[in-house]
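Propose amino acids for all 301 sites.
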């Protein structure tokens, strides 16, 4: 009987390992194709498409981005500022709202929870939002236009954090702290937050990635090039490349060609590599908190 169970466990382990390997390859191989495509010659991409191992290696796309190095470094700085500022601010105000909602002795708990959930289903739309942020709050062409609208706090993160507090912070612990004379803010700062590192890291990762990948706020509210975030600048570079490429084709059709090779395809891959590289470097440091926070915070409270 023990041998049969041992064999079954081995088969189960093999199946699980095979599944995880396939799942990992599904995540890794697209990134490999992305990196390979960014250093593949333009003609090879056009004629043969993407491949895991490029036949002809070309760094033309990265050379073109190198000419924009000053703008890219400035955009990196803007993106770092809005990502750090927005993430830290979000990790301050989100638990301040989520913690009271997790307390059953908070009378307005159900009403505010409904309002938070309502914002996940409905919103005013782009036009009213644009009018509000630009004409009422006057945020157009300011750094705050890249931080506050849409990303600073959302209902999903509040509910995720509320469920974590409700499931993992014992009420007896709070009551004991009150008996010892601790006030609500002291309980929150000294007890609740130190016990909530997994969900804080999880929400922080969500918010940070949202800020890093955001391009809509810059598209709507920013027209000054010095305030372009990384995603907005890369999008603008891609538009410029497409314009120059179409101009080159038109000139070639007319008998005059001013550019030998415009990396209109490979530069898309290079732009993606430049955009995701910092996130790929930082993600492993938050992974253990991310998995635990999602698992526990998603439990229905």
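Proposal:
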């Amino acid at each position: 009987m023990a041998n049969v169970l041992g064999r079954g466990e081995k088969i189960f382990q093999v199946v699980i390992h095979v599944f995880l390997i396939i799942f990992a390859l599904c995540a890794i191989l697209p990134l490999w194709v992305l990196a390979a495509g960014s250093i593949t010659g333009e003609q090879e991409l056009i004629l043969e498409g993407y491949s895991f191992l490029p036949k002809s290696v070309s760094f033309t796309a990265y050379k073109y981005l190198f000419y924009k190095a000053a703008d890219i470094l400035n955009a990196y700085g803007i993106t770092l500022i809005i990502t750090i500022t927005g993430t830290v601010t979000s990790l301050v105000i989100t638990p301040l709202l989520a913690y009271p909602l997790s307390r059953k002795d908070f009378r307005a708990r159900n009403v505010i929870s409904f309002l938070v959930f309502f914002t996940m289903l409905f919103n005013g739309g782009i036009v009213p939002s644009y009018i509000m942020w630009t004409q009422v709050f006057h945020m157009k062409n300011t750094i705050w236009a890249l931080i506050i609208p849409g990303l600073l706090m959302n209902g999903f993160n509040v509910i995720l954090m509320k469920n974590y507090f409700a499931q993992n912070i014992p009420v007896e612990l709070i009551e004991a702290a009150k008996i010892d004379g601790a006030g609500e803010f002291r309980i929150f700062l000294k007890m609740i937050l130190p016990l909530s590192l997994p969900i804080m890291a999880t929400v922080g990762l969500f918010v940070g990635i949202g800020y890093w990948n955001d391009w809509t706020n810059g598209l709507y509210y920013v027209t000054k090039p010095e305030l372009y975030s990384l995603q907005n600048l890369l999008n603008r570079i891609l538009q410029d490349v497409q314009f120059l490429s179409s101009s080159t084709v038109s000139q070639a059709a007319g008998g005059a060609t001013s550019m030998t090779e415009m990396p209109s395809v490979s530069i898309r891959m290079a732009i993606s590599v430049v955009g995701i590289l910092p996130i790929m470097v930082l993600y492993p440091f938050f992974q253990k908190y991310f998995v635990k926070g999602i698992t526990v915070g998603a439990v229905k409270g």
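Residues 2-38 form the longest helix (37 residues). Residues 254-260, 297-301 have pLDDT under 50 and may be disordered.
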